[in-house]
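Subject: Sanity check before I submit

Could someone independently write out the structure tokens for this chain? I want to compare against mine line by line before I put it in a report. The sequence has 144 residues.
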Amino acid sequence: MIEGVQIKDLVRHQDERGFFQELIRKTDDFFTPGFGQLSHSLVYPGIVKAWHGHTKQYQWTYVISGVLSIVLYDTRQESRTFKEKMQMLLGDGHKEQIYVLPPGVVHGYRCLNGPAHVLYVTSDVFDPEEEIRLPLSELEFDAR
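---
Independent answer below. Compare away.
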């Protein structure tokens, strides 16, 4: 587990009408950095998006539908998990979870089954000055 990354297991309440599932509450310890922006992304099967993160803001990510193979990478030199990677599968047929990227941790993903719909909440509004973008070729991306 990368230092500062949190994964929250979600509870789905399902019946014959469908389901209801809470993602984040403002009272969650998981959500203490607060709300800045809500975004929705569509990713087609086979597409890789990598590497993206932020220097100041937190980002919560939830896969609404489809399946993503997600890789997280710690770019923070002061972190005890500097240069460590972790991988997970999220989406249809996988454990219901949402994850938070702390500042300095980047993520990338490959859409294994889709199209995938991905929901992002960030602790501030988008600011290109604090965005981390690493070229895909800079780190090995092995998310099959």
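---
OP: Matches mine. For the report I'm noting this point. The first strand starts at residue 6 and ends at 9.
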